[in-house]
Amino acid sequence: MIKNAKRAYGASKKAFWLTLGGIALALGLIGIPLPLLPTTPFLLLAVFCFSRSSEKLHVWLLDHPQFGRPIRQWQDHRAISRKNKVLAVLSMVVVFLVSYGFFDIPAYALMSQAIILTLVALFLTTRPEPPKAGVSEDGIIQEPEEGRS
């Protein structure tokens, strides 16, 4: 009786994380062409959820040719590459300019948007960059992070 209850609880917990991971992945993918919907936080959430529900999806996302490297850089070093920082800040500037120039948005909403985007840009630009490949202090050659080892 207790074994069945534990098994059912474990299965429902796994289903919860799998469902949440699937939703996060979908929102992250939708966020690629939509600048107001952030991609990276949803992909990080998806990796987290899949690590608790599906090893296959977890590894797939970490090994993905487009998303894997930035996710691993964040997980391992809490770092964001310069290229990704520049792209993120530029997209925020474009979003704000489009909001300002093409839509009749009240001043308080534009000001709120400007403050939020500025805070996000400050957060991004103050994150460290991933370490470069080279030789570690103990003499081990470190390869650039092309794929998972």
Strand order of the largest sheet: 1-2
Strand content: under 5%
Output the radius of gyration.
Answer: 20 Å
The computed structural class is mainly alpha
Shape from CA axes?
A: globular
Number of strands: 2
Strand-and-helix sequence, N→C? HHHHHHEE
Through-space gap between termini = 42 Å
Q: Work out the helix count.
A: 6
Poorly predicted tracts of residues? none
Roughly how much helix do the residues carry, as a percent range? 55-70%
**Biggest β-sheet, characterized?**
2 strands, antiparallel
Give the overall average pLDDT: 82
Please provide a brief summary of the model.
About 65% of the residues lie in helices and about 5% in strands. It is an all-alpha fold. Strands 1-2 form a two-stranded antiparallel ribbon.
Structure, explained:
Helix content is 67%, strand content 3%. The chain has 149 residues and is mainly α. Helix 1 packs antiparallel against helix 2 (40-51), helix 2 (40-51) packs antiparallel against helix 3 and helix 3 (55-63) packs across helix 4.
Q: Helices, strands, pairings?
A:
Layout: H1 2-30, H2 40-51, H3 55-63, H4 68-77, H5 82-102, H6 107-125, E1 134-135, E2 141-142
Antiparallel strand pairs: 1-2
Helix pairs in contact: 1-2, 2-3, 3-4, 5-6
Task: Based on the model shown, name its key terms.
149 residues; two-stranded antiparallel sheet; 6 helices; mainly alpha; 67% helix; globular
